[in-house]
Amino acid sequence: MLKWAGLMRPAGGAPSTAHEPSRDKVAPEPLWLEWAALGGMLLFATWLLGVRGVWSLLLASDPTGITLVIIVVFAAATLWCGARARELQQQRALMQASRGWASEYWQALAAAPRDSNAPLDLLTEQTHGPHGTAWWVNGIQLKLGLLGKVIGFSILALQIGNVQSFDPSQSQDLLRSLTTGLGVALLTTMVGLVGNILLGLQLTRLDRYADRLVADCQRRGLNLPQAK
């Protein structure tokens, strides 16, 4: 994705700034504060839904427990995003002092100026590597929602198949049993979609911040002006 930038060279051969990176200051983006603001809004929404009785309704309407699993996965992944945002922001600050991942990249670039792709691969693994697993977890939420839909409609189909004859006096009980499967299908799908959207938003922001971190490391390592 960013390997093309590792091929850039100033005229005259290997980058002379691999040993002494430029000291241009880069205004750090408040990534962790952005996540904290989002986390605060999610906590408020969680409290509000609890007061309104939405959580109890969701959990009581899903006997399979898939909705609870999706919520737990989303909460754990969101906390991981917060920790990852803090780590990336710290590495951005350490770059100003020529430490951390940036320093490792510059040292590797100085040791192997003719093979700049290898140091770049190591840098992108540090900045983007863990995000791959997080995106997989994000997809799991959607798949669990679809699994709940399949289970819900399967319950609905089985209940309809067990109906031997229609008795008007039992219509209320019949409708209640049929709507159980339909409720499982719709609720798990809805929760999976909402979790997928919200977690995808966080991961997209992390990826963009990591891209910017890699680009700034390369600019300083190759003595190129910082992007405005």
General description of the model:
The protein is mainly α and 228 residues long. Helices cover 73% and strands 0% of the residues. It has one domain.
Q: How much of the residues is beta strand, in percent?
A: under 5%
List how many beta strands DSSP finds.
0
The percent of residues in helical segments reads over 70%
Query: What is the count of DSSP helices, taking H or I runs of 4+ residues?
Result: 6
Q: Biggest sheet: strands, sense, closure?
A: none
Task: Characterize this entry briefly.
This protein has 228 residues and is mostly helical.
Q: What's the arrangement of secondary structure elements?
A:
Elements lengths: L30 H21 L2 H7 L5 H31 L3 H12 L5 H45 L9 H51 L7
Features:
228 residues; mainly alpha; 6 helices
